[in-house]
Design brief:
The protein has about 575 residues and is an alpha/beta fold. It contains 21 helices and 13 strands. Strands 1-2-4-3 form a 4-stranded antiparallel beta sheet. Strands 6-5-10-11 form a 4-stranded parallel beta sheet, with helices on both faces. The protein binds one RNA strand of 76 nucleotides through α2, β8, β9, α13 and α14.
RNA sequence: GCACCCGUAGCUCAGUGGAUAGAGCAGCCGAUUUCUAAUCGGCCGGUCGCAGGUUCGAUCCCUGCCGGGUGCGCCA
């Protein structure tokens, strides 16, 4: 990629000019902030000038003189206080595009050191429907997993479903007292939710019901055959439904290792932590204290309740053991909401005390808020169901597709499916993950502007050109780029390489979404300015190659976001 | 009380220690016998919450304040 090559050239220029770089000083080249000055820029002279207390502009001139980029750039200029601006040559761009269209990775470099990365995301609860709150973890996690795989990591996706919470006390009691078996057969989740809500309301009104629920839970945890059987049926019914949703979403997991999977390991784990001195008893509960970590000094991590029950953190610790021992994880990524930040800080600290060196990251995200600006409450209040959102999105897309001619009903349904689902995913992934946002039907399901349909439409336009071509076309590796619109498109295409890697620096899918939007925008402009099929000779060939590259980058890039494309719309 | 996140155009949101802070939506004007208009071009719209500090340069980094959200031993 150009940025990496230019960076190493710049590094060499410093050496050639005899300029010693201070310890830890990283020479950097970035994509130009203002394209009037060039395609890439380096502010190194200004940053370094400050440190060395020398004139930054003179320093920039010195570097410029030593910089060997004749094969890449047609212009190098020094501007203002010491900006070093680089403009790529049409030849270099043309060659690059020739390479990109032939490369399975479209110019994206594979990582030098491939890691085994476990991505933990989605994690819905059993016996509850997935709602809009699950959108963020599911889509962000899926996207990050796809990108990590694409650049050469070994990725293991794991859905740590909540199949063993205290909520089962209520479901068990409800199952035995108020379950409607016919309703369960028709719509399992709906009936389970009804039962749960009903019992939940009962417990609020009657203390005795709560006690009964607790004892049902204890029986389950002690292996009571009847309760265990009911629990297994709940899990099976829920998993069926979940698989349907994930298929619809085109989201795939290598494992569904829910909390229950680790039950047997919790007691020995806690014993082990006690004997090794990592954990201690405090107020009859078992805790891990972090007295050497100032910000956690008064925030111990509880791993066993005073009644002997285990907690969220206990299961997570056992899960870490499994991921390290059985899966040999180099890294574990937790795509979980920002409110759980403290939990993960504690968890990672315990792992550190245990000598576990696996890299663990909490990839946090902000909350989806209701119209009142408050968080959706999943326990008491209502939320919008995920299926409901998807169905509505597909329906809205179908309204637009219905106006089109030349499609069978099946094709129309297929197109609406791709566009509706894509719109929902893109609405999430184009947003910075830390931003809280209010759930809005209109924004989530918009079909114009900065949306998935806009990107898919750009792809459709590239495909339509190739459908209309007569005969075989040989795309030439020698592009002759002349028009500004061609040039702008070529540069954008080349920058797919930079963007894809940038996403994983801070785990931010919105960087890729933003890039693809700009690419589609650039392509739409190119499309209006440069007719492809009416052009001739080398110009036509160049434009066809640009269209081919755009087509591939859009399809691949959208694929990395988890968004499918359609050939026509 | 302490900790973390957020505050940018009417609305929803991007963005970066650098050059004139950008999109979409909404509003207005224009382009189509189309290589698919789910498109393109243009106009309108900002004291980047407030006040200091560091810097050649701060919307970005630091401190304080204001406003909103979230979390802080026996839920997950």
């Amino acid at each position: 990629m150009f940025r990496a090559v230019l960076t190493s050239r710049l590094q060499a220029a410093f050496t050639a000019a005899g300029i010693a770089l201070p310890e830890g000083f990283a020479v950097s080249v970035v994509i130009a902030s203002d394209t009037r000055f060039g395609d890439y820029q380096s502010n190194a002279a200004m940053t370094l000038g400050k440190q060395l207390k020398t004139n930054p502009r003179a320093l920039a001139e010195q570097i410029k003189a030593a910089l060997q980029v004749d094969d890449l750039c047609e212009k190098i200029t020094v501007e203002g206080p010491g900006f070093l601006n680089l403009t790529l040559s049409a030849t270099a761009l043309g060659q690059k595009l020739g390479v990109i269209v032939k490369d399975a990775y479209l110019g994206v470099l594979q990582v030098e050191k491939s890691q085994r990365i476990v991505v933990d995301f989605s994690a819905p609860n059993i016996a509850k429907p997935m709602h809009v709150g699950h959108i963020r973890s599911t889509f962000i996690g899926d996207c990050l997993a796809r990108i990590a795989r694409f650049i050469g990591h070994t990725v293991i996706t794991d859905n740590h479903i909540g199949d063993w919470g205290t909520q089962f006390g209520m479901i068990l009691h409800g199952w035995k007292t108020i379950l409607d078996h016919a309703a369960l057969e028709k719509d399992p989740i709906h009936e389970l939710v009804r039962v749960y809500k009903n019992v939940n309301a009962q417990t609020k009104a009657d203390e005795a019901v709560l006690t009964t629920c607790r004892s049902e839970l204890v029986k389950l945890q002690q292996g009571d055959a009847e309760n265990l059987d009911i629990w297994k049926r709940c899990v099976a019914l829920s998993l069926d439904q979940l698989r349907t949703i994930y298929a619809k979403l085109d989201v795939h997991f290598d494992h569904f290792l829910g909390e229950s999977h680790f039950n047997d390991q919790l007691a020995p784990l806690v014993e082990n932590l006690l004997t090794s001195g990592i954990a201690e008893i405090s107020d009859s509960a078992t805790c891990v204290f972090f007295r050497d970590v100032p910000e956690l000094a008064d925030k111990p991590c509880l791993i066993r309740k005073s009644d002997g029950g285990f907690l969220y953190a206990t299961t997570d610790l056992a899960t870490i053991d499994h991921r390290i021992n059985a899966w040999k994880a180099d890294e574990i990524w937790y795509v979980v909401g920002a409110p759980q930040e403290l939990h993960f800080r504690q968890l990672f600290q315990v792992a550190k005390k245990r000598g576990q060196t696996t890299v663990m990251r909490h990839i946090a995200f902000g909350s989806i808020l209701g119209q009142d600006g408050k968080m959706f409450k999943t326990r008491s209040g209502e939320s919008v169901g995920l299926l409901e959102v998807l169905d509505e999105a597909v329906e809205r897309a179908a309204v637009v597709v219905a106006e089109r001619e030349g499609f069978s009903d099946d094709e129309k349904a297929q197109i609406a499916q791709v566009i509706g689902t894509g719109a929902v995913k893109y609405a999430e992934l184009s947003q910075h993950r830390m931003t809280d946002y209010k759930f809005s039907w209109d924004k989530m399901l918009a079909l114009q502007g900065n949306t998935a349909p806009y990107l898919i439409n750009a792809y459709v336009r590239t495909r339509s050109i190739f459908r209309k071509l007569d005969g075989e076309v040989t795309l030439t590796p020698v592009l002759t780029i002349t028009e500004p619109a061609e040039r702008a498109l070529a540069i954008k295409l080349a920058q797919f390489a930079e963007t894809t890697h940038d996403v994983l620096v801070d785990h931010r899918p919105n960087l890729l979404a933003g890039y693809l939007y700009e690419l589609a925008d650039t392509y739409h402009s190119f499309y209006e300015a440069c007719n492809v099929l009416r052009a001739e000779g080398a110009v036509r060939n160049t434009r066809l190659t640009l269209c081919d590259a755009t087509s591939r980058v859009l399809k691949t890039g959208l694929g990395l976001l988890g968004i499918q494309t359609t050939e026509r719309m």
